[in-house]
Write a structure and sequence with these properties.
Elements: H1 3-32, E1 34-39, H2 41-52, H3 54-58, E2 62-67, H4 71-80, E3 85-90, H5 91-100, E4 106-111, E5 113-114, E6 118-120, E7 135-139, H6 142-154, E8 159-160, E9 173-175, E10 181-185, E11 199-202, H7 204-209, H8 214-217, E12 220-221, E13 233-238, H9 245-254, H10 257-266, E14 272-273
Parallel strand pairs: 1-2, 1-3, 7-10, 7-11
Antiparallel strand pairs: 3-13, 4-13, 5-14, 6-11, 6-12, 8-9
Helix pairs in contact: 5-6
Length: 283
């Protein structure tokens, strides 16, 4: 082989190495720039839409979604780094999870919406029609159960003990004038037990999946006020990532006007936008 050919092949080899290295670095950078959002139910559908939106592209956000059907598993996956951010839970649910998992705490990035919890019945059309001794189905998860009981109190059916917390349960009912009987169920089975239980409390995500509309089909539902602010949903991440500037962009993206138009139309106004600083929960 001539000297010129040796030089030529050497140059080609060097260029190949540089290009391969560059491609490898580019792939790594691309992966590290991807935000994986864990979610389920309608929240998963929302973030699948947002991930493909021109608004996300304009903000330079590369979003991937991952479906995990159990709430506690979503939080565990977020804490361990299997997902970066999650979108499904209320502020009170997050606080309850952190109390139960002090070594894997999560932090809120910002607020998204209030999805009203509803009281449903196939037997009664008004709260005033509920007779003594009626069985009421509430969630068996501590955070969801406490929210259910607070709504029953708002409806004037029960009175809870002073100092009732996000981990409170049926044992914290101070007054029960109608002698309601409580049946604890898996929160996701609410629509299916309506034929057997006269009164059932169902979250709107589960209700929507079953064709129920909280603003039209419930006999009583939450309103956005000081008493329900802890039920406002948040985006959450591992505590060490709470100041991540890229993750915080997700809050701004969620509240984009065009994104909100889609959400309101798709979910019939049942996801009430709440764009508040995290200090809102301390007031």
């Amino acid at each position: 082989m001539s000297k010129i050919k040796k030089i030529f092949f050497s140059v080609i080899l060097m260029l190949s190495v540089v290009l391969l290295a560059g491609c490898g670095n580019q792939t790594k950078a691309s992966n590290s720039d991807t935000i994986i959002i864990g979610s389920h139910h309608s929240d998963l559908n929302i973030w699948e839409y947002i991930a493909k939106s021109p608004q996300a592209k304009k903000m330079g956000l590369n979003i991937k979604t991952r479906e995990i059907t159990d709430g506690s598993q979503i939080n565990a996956a977020t804490s361990s780094g299997q997902v970066d951010v999650n979108a499904y839970q209320s502020w009170s649910y997050l606080q309850a999870y952190n109390k139960q998992n002090p070594k894997g705490k999560l932090a809120a990035l910002g607020t998204t919406y209030l999805e009203p919890l509803g009281i449903y019945s196939k037997k009664y059309k008004k709260i005033s029609q509920i007779p003594d001794g009626t069985t009421v189905a509430v969630a068996n998860d501590p955070a969801d159960e406490s929210r259910d009981l607070l709504l029953l109190q708002s409806a004037g059916l029960i009175t809870l003990k002073k100092g009732f917390t996000a981990l409170g349960g049926v044992n914290d009912v101070a007054k029960n004038p109608k002698n309601l009987k409580f049946k604890e169920i898996d929160e996701t089975t609410g629509p299916r037990v309506m034929d057997d239980v006269p009164i059932v409390l169902i979250s709107n995500s589960v209700a929507l999946d079953s064709g129920l509309h909280v603003l039209q089909n419930s006999i009583f539902h939450e309103k956005l006020d000081q008493d329900t602010k802890s039920n406002v949903n948040v985006l959450a991440t591992a505590e060490k990532n709470k100041n991540n500037p890229t993750y915080k962009k997700l809050i701004k993206l969620y509240h984009n006007k065009e994104i909100q138009k889609y959400i309101n139309k798709k979910y019939y106004g049942t996801k009430v936008e709440v764009n508040k600083p995290l200090s809102y929960f301390d007031k």
